[in-house]
């Protein structure tokens, strides 16, 4: 695996492999890798000829009071994990390399960026879209792979690709969980043992929703009320949002249907965790 830190070098390497090897699969990450990331890397390895992963803790997607500085970083460990998975290139630019002095251009996906996580993280998706578009220009992937864990991010990026006619296909991979149900996240490393246990309330309440829907309940408010009640009983938890929305406009739905996104963000102490479920109704 070749580690590349400059945009010029990455573009040059892409020019060479595009001609010689064919399809490029791209897995953008912020590092502190776990099985969730690796499952995406494996999908990329299976479906495309050349796999490029990136590790970049993107400053523009963090709010002024968020954890940009504290975000866990361990390049040596991450690089060894990616190497073991057979990744061909790791792109690891510095913030100064990606945003040179005087950077002024941003990408916004209107409306969608203000819903769900966008309400408590203003500017977050503008930062995500901007960095992903920049990375797409540098890496020129045929297929880019993302996780369902960040459901709103995946929906917004799909919209960006359609709206800007980008020549890339996105693939969204399922959420990978710990054996007890907690969705894997680099931010789980912040949780104390007690918080870690409290954090299980997210996946538990999604399972509860699934059971209710499985029994035939279709009223969104009834299912959401049960979820909110369950989370409310956990003393360390504070709800940011728990919603049932359509995956096109991220608008709340009254009636749960096949494809409805049940999405939630909950603070456990100071740590904000997200989780979600796409409803699949038996035909
Ligand atoms: P991050 O490093 O948090 O920016 O995540 C990089 C990619 O991995 C994003 O596409 C995430 O949606 C995805 N990802 C993070 N956690 C998980 C998980 N538990 N399961 C599946 N994909 C994930």
Number of domains: 2
> Which ligands appear in the coordinates?
adenosine monophosphate
The CATH architecture classification of the largest domain is 3-Layer(aba) Sandwich
Identify the overall geometry: globular
Amino-to-carboxy terminus distance:
45 Å
Helix content: 25-40%
Q: Strands of the biggest beta sheet: in what spatial order?
A: 1-4-3-2-5-6
Query: What is the fold named in CATH at topology level of the largest domain?
Result: Rossmann fold
Rg (C-alpha, Å): 19 Å
Taken as a percent bin, the fraction of beta residues is 15-25%
Mean pLDDT: 97
What is the H/E order?
EHEHEHEHHHEHEHHHEEE
Reading off the top of the CATH hierarchy, the class of the largest domain is best stated as: Alpha Beta
Q: What name goes with the CATH superfamily of the largest domain?
A: HUPs
Biggest sheet, in brief?
6 strands, parallel
Secondary structural class: alpha/beta
How many β-strand stretches?
A: 9
Low-confidence runs (pLDDT<50, min 5 residues)?
Answer: none
Q: What's the total helix number?
A: 10
């Amino acid at each position: 695996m070749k580690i590349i830190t400059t945009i010029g070098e990455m573009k040059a390497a892409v020019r060479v492999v595009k001609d010689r090897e064919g399809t490029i699969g791209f897995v953008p990450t912020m590092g502190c890798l776990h099985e969730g990331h690796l499952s995406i890397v494996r999908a990329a390895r299976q479906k495309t000829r050349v796999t490029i992963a990136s590790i970049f803790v993107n400053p523009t997607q963090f709010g002024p009071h968020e954890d940009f500085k504290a975000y866990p970083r361990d390049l040596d460990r991450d690089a060894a994990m990616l190497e073991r998975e057979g990744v061909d290139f790791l792109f690891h630019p510095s913030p100064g390399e990606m945003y040179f002095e005087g950077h002024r251009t941003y990408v916004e996906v209107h409306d969608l960026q203000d819903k769900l996580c966008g309400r408590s993280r203003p500017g977050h998706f503008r930062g995500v879209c901007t960095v992903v578009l920049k990375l797409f220009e540098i890496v020129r992937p045929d297929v880019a792979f993302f996780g369902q864990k960040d459901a709103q991010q995946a929906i917004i990026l799909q919209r960006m690709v359609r709206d800007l006619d980008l020549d890339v296909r996105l693939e969204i991979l399922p959420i990978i969980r710990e054996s007890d149900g907690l969705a894997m996240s680099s931010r789980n490393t912040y949780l104390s043992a007690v918080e870690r246990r409290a954090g299980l309330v997210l996946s538990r309440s999604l399972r509860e929703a699934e059971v209710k829907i499985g029994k035939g309940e279709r009223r969104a408010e009834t299912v959401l009320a049960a979820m909110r009640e369950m989370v409310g009983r956990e003393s360390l938890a504070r709800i940011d949002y728990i919603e049932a929305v359509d995956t096109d406009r991220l608008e709340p739905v009254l009636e749960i249907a096949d494809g409805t996104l049940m999405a939630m963000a909950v603070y456990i102490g100071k740590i904000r965790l997200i989780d979600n479920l796409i409803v699949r109704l038996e035909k």
